[in-house]
Description:
By secondary structure, the protein is mainly alpha-helical. It is 79% helix and 0% strand.
Amino acid sequence: MPLKPHPLLRYALLVDALTSTVFALGLVLLAGLLPPLLGLPDGLLRGIGVGLLPYGLALFWIARHPSPVWVKAVIGLNLFWVADSLVLLGSKLIAPTALGAAFILVQAVAVGGVTLAQIIGLRRSNPLQAR
């Protein structure tokens, strides 16, 4: 049975697609400038940017053609992203500057907020099917 997406779900997926794509481009294009400011390795920033670009583009497609399976996959990946960001911040693997730590926290909170909107939107879309 196809998903009848609630407007909140479409909006949250589109916001995720747009921010992921812009974030990816920013990390790739500004990777040379960001390491000293954030205290994060150049390779990490570039790698995240390169990885996020196809993800962000795929999200545009998913926003136009949402299915419970794809939306749940996006939600799962976003939750993993938030958890991974917090684990990385708490680890000894990196030594971010104060700005870098804030950067990691702010983007984790933003992804968490978009994910919450996706969860609510999915539940409002087809309550019996979305669970």
